[in-house]
């Protein structure tokens, strides 16, 4: 793969190809993108397998994508990121086009920011960094444990340490908050991302709490969420944007949280599907259902734990199970990182390991607090775009 990237870099000099950068427009679908750029719909969508067709629905407004055109202005390559792990690669091959899903090449930097509150944590982080995602991640992490509206005061200090991915030299994907502290009056509050991908306070108590642990009671977890998996049989990159719970046909399915049903019906590979919209931009999806419970329809309000349907095998399914998805503002996230039965209190070996991790985080937080680390955007780097370079049929190869 790296060899192909290097070949591409060489080819851009040989053939004077120019990389164009664009931002995906609001409300545009993958099919509309193909039509707008005069790309063949059959080759690049209708002839794809069902999984790849579903994957194209993951294109999101605001994502940065790249195109390469030849001297005649015809698109020869395109890179369209689907999430922070996979991207669509479109490549002109003679008179036709090839479609493939490939990993995203990115690098992760650990960064930090220290600032004093003048308005609110969200607004001050946004003003300092220009990053809505960074501001949102800080507020979301403390949401269930602190009341910023009533308890925050002007002059209070916050510190946050986070990982940020970079793609083509630009921030990419949601930053991951690793540790943070905020001084509110005379009390200091901490939060830490543990090795189990959950947030804990200084006492080792989990601070996250949202939905039911499992929408199907006593079901077996048969398939986990992944944005990037190389299929051993199909020999191609795939994604599984939810979790599967294997259970007997007819087993009740419960709403993972209170909300409003926004869809209840048949939808392609999902089979019988229910979508529920929750607070804070969350949406849950329940697929392959045998049937819906009476009264479950679009517009219906449901409560957490309420039965909404029954396990089945409808749509593209190899056996009776529930395919459960969690989405935040339309983007798929791992339910196992967010959904849980109750908050967790670390004990024994888990607690000891957490305290060691906490000590390292505290050292980092205190360093940035003492040195008043300010946010600084990463220096610009060479504008290199990692495309595949595939020789045309008429070009010689080196094997």
Describe the structure.
The chain has 399 residues and is α+β, with helices and mostly antiparallel strands. It has 3 domains: 2-103, Nuclear Transport Factor 2, Chain: A (Roll); 107-209 and 343-370, Nuclear Transport Factor 2, Chain: A (Roll); 220-338, Glucose Permease (Domain IIA) (Distorted Sandwich). It has 9 helices and 22 strands. The strands form 4 sheets. Strands 11, 14, 15, 16, 17, 18, 19, 20, 21 and 22 form a 10-stranded antiparallel beta sheet that branches. Strands 1-2-3-4-5 form a 5-stranded antiparallel beta sheet, with no helix packed on it. Strand 12 (226-231) and strand 13 form a beta hairpin. Helix 5 runs antiparallel to helix 6 (132-142). The longest helix has 23 residues, at 348-370. The two termini are 14 Å apart. The relative contact order is 0.14.
Summarize the structure.
The protein is α+β, with helices and mostly antiparallel strands. It is built from nine helices and 22 strands.
**Unreliably modeled segments:** 1-16, 376-399
* CATH class group of the largest domain: Alpha Beta
- Rg over CA atoms, rounded to whole Å, is 24 Å
Shape field: globular
Structural class: alpha+beta
Assigned CATH architecture of the largest domain: Roll
What is the arithmetic mean of pLDDT?
A: 81
Number of strands: 22
Count of helix runs: 9
Strand content: 35-45%
> Distance N terminus to C terminus?
14 Å
* Largest beta-sheet details: 10 strands, antiparallel
How many discrete domains? 3
What is the subunit arrangement here? single chain
